[in-house]
Orotidine 5'-phosphate decarboxylase
Amino acid sequence: MSENRALGPRVIVALDYPNAAEALAMAQRLSPELCRLKVGFELFVSAGPSLIETLQDQGFDVFCDLKFHDIPNTVASACRAAARLGVWMLNVHASGGPAMLEAARAAIDEGAHKPLLIGVTVLTSMDDADLHASGLARSASAQAGFLADWAAKAGLDGVVCSAQEAAGMHAAHGRQFLTVTPGIRPINATADDQKRIVSPAQAAANGSDYLVIGRPITRAARPLDVLSSINDELKQVI
Ligand SMILES: O=C(O)c1cc(=O)[nH]c(=O)n1[C@@H]1O[C@H](COP(=O)(O)O)[C@@H](O)[C@H]1O
């Protein structure tokens, strides 16, 4: 596999906490040299944008995971506001459609700071049966590929997908198209609510650029030890 576009730490730790105090306590046990951080709905709604600024002041790159999904004008405005926070990466739902994705791209491009813009394809908590139940005939991986085509055509920097799909994404859209992969579970870890899961080493072997990992690290007795051993696992694959 050719050179990975990802620079710096490839693990993005999901800070899924109900308040700033708990999130900051976890951040303090980690290090910007070893990981990036993700702020999602729960934390953003309870702690607000200032928490993102605090984490950035501590040296962390922040992935603003608010999965915008609305009409093009609303999503573009939200992307502009997120970019102004100085975040490293942000995401929108690719299923919002080409016009929405193009509006998001244009909004980011006109700003002074340009975060990586990533399209969420099919959530890793969903499998083929879930898609069929919602009326889609495609498999989860085929639908993820379909939505990635929209994201690539609109000029997004990459997609959120399962690491099961990472190699296919790079084959279709090139090595520069980033794959950001949640649903990562070390061997023997519980799946929780994730369905399309992959181990860290297998994700790296599949060419995943960034691995989003929450509970296996944040609920561990020694989060830094788990993070370090995952980073070691990743180094061995490259
Ligand atoms: O966009 C995301 O980050 C995301 C997309 C997806 O398809 N699946 C997914 O799990 N995520 C996020 O990735 C994190 C995974 O956390 P754990 O399941 O605890 O490792 C959560 O914060 C989810 O919100």
Remarks:
- The mean pLDDT is 96.
- The chain has one domain: 11-237.
- The two ends are 9 Å apart (CA to CA).
- Strands lie at 11-14, 36-39, 62-68, 89-93, 116-120, 158-160, 178-181, 210-213.
